[in-house]
């Protein structure tokens, strides 16, 4: 069995270093209570899970790697179906709206 390094992996499917830093910032802001867009937070968490699985060279077919892959897929789906919009009017009143979009169930999701 060959040893696979991160340089050998196809990085096109994985977040770049700058995307990971942005995701880490979003997660940090969420923990501090500054970020409330659940879709954005889910996407950031998915990117961090993907990087942990990729750079940690976790087998995505079995064990912990399988669950990490499933969690990442779920979080990316959540990210694309949940958005939060915050609007502030001229008087300084803030309105936050969370929108949930549902998609038809695929055969793979059954």
TrEMBL record:
InterPro entries: Nodulin-rel_1/2. Coiled coil: none annotated. GO terms for biological process: regulation of abscisic acid biosynthetic process; response to heat. Residues 1-13 have a biased composition (Basic and acidic residues). Residues 1-34, 80-110 are annotated as: Disordered. It comes from the Eukaryota. Residues 81-103 have a biased composition (Low complexity). This is Nodulin-related protein 1. It comes from Lactuca virosa.
């Amino acid at each position: 069995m060959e040893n696979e390094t991160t340089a050998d992996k196809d990085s096109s499917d994985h977040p770049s270093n700058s995307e990971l830093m942005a995701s880490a910032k979003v997660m940090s802001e969420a923990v501090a209570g500054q970020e409330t867009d659940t879709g954005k937070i889910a996407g950031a968490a998915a990117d961090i899970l993907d990087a942990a699985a990729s750079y940690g060279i976790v087998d995505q077919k079995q064990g912990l790697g399988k669950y990490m892959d499933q969690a990442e897929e779920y979080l990316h789906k959540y990210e694309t179906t949940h958005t939060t919009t915050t609007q502030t009017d001229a008087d300084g009143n803030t309105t936050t709206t969370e929108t949930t979009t549902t998609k038809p169930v695929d055969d793979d999701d059954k």
